[in-house]
Amino acid sequence: MATAKFKKAARVILVGAPGVGKGTQAERLMGRFPQLSAVSSGDLLRNSVRKKTPLGLEAESTMRSGNLVPDDMILSLILGELKSKQWVSPKTSVSDALPAQPSDAPEASFILDGFPRTASQAVRLDALIPINLVVSLITPVDIILSRIASRWVHEPSGRVYNTTFNAPKMAGRDDITMEPLTKRADDCPETWKQRLKKFHETSQPLLDHYEQKGVLWTVTGNSSDEISPKLFNEFERRFA
Fold first, then answer.
1. Which of 80, 130, 163, 236 would bridge 150 by S-S if both were Cys, CB 3.0 to 4.6 A apart?
2. Which of 149, 184, 156, 181 is nearest to 168 (CA)?
3. pTM of the model as a whole
4. What is the pLDDT of residues 91-107, one digit of tens each?
5. Backbone angles phi, psi at 110, to 5 degrees
């Protein structure tokens, strides 16, 4: 795949229904634009808990008591990651009244995954790190359901196969280890429909928020291969 360079920082969020292919598109975007990095709130949280950082210990205690990790804690993790890369001022904190004034250098480009999920979280993020592109990925429901029905995973590695367009070399076996493939617990139509309902309830206000900010762009396609070229063109138009 040919690569392209940014001329300014892209601070991006991908929004889409479960199974729409956000992970696939993020990987392809980072392959196409090497200055893009992934910043995953879930990964940051898990690493923080594993390393027993002060924030990680606090988060672990919160989760053990059955509560959700507060937004401030997630924002602190994201901000800490951006500080470590020198993409924002080291003096910035979640309690600051002023935004972080992130670097506009092309190398300070990232796709933020896992946060925000609600409009209220987006408002908190805006006050800290202004996002300059939110992509709404749309694929018809029947196509996503077909994709999920054909999806198999190698749990230890996270490798994903699809019997329709990315089949394993040997049916039911991982290409590398030859270990058996399994279905994800939530890869059943009824579970997915429940997740979709919840997604729509929270995502529409989130998308409305970013549309009002003037940073929302919507792309539609029946497959990842159909969506990727449109994404590449839009990223090049905006940032390259």
1. 163
2. 181
3. 0.84
4. 778 876 566 788 899 99
5. -150, 155
